Amino acid sequence: FRRRRVSYAGPHKPGTIVVDTRRKYLYFVEGGGRAMRYGIGVGRQGFSWSGSAVIKRKAKWPTWTPPAAMVERDPFAAEWADGMPGGPRNPLGARALYLYQGNVDTLYRIHGTFVPSSIGKAVSSGCIRMINADVADLYERVPTGTRVIVLQNGAELEGDQFDEEDEKPRGRRRKRRKPGFFLFGSLEDEC
To answer: Which residues form the catalytic set?
Structure first.
């Protein structure tokens, strides 16, 4: 699920974000037949959504305010019902991109996580999560007003619009160390 540039032959204009929840990738369409691909974590059963939205707000080290439904079912969220300041224990991670439909906040976000093992899985309460380095990279690439298309079950991507084998990683692979601990609450209770 590492970030990499891939070929793109789809209908979406450069500057569009396409989220494939089935494959668990987010694509930022760059133009010239290319897209930047990022691994993501997505909403677990009953907490996912699809459709089109626009990024209307961006935040570095955002405050996390859990929705009322999450506060009711989750003691960790209830503790922060009035908002948790940004920082290393915050479930939104290093950056957040806020998704709107018209002028209505969808309450869904593209955001960071301090639980990198959640990438590639369906464990969140509906938001699209990325490792912090990737969400920081995407944050710098996209302005407010960026269109986001979220597809369930790879709906529009069946024609292999993205060539996953196009650009191979270069150089030697380093052995990754597994972190000894995580810095905050449960994996399932993140946005």
So the answer is: 111, 127
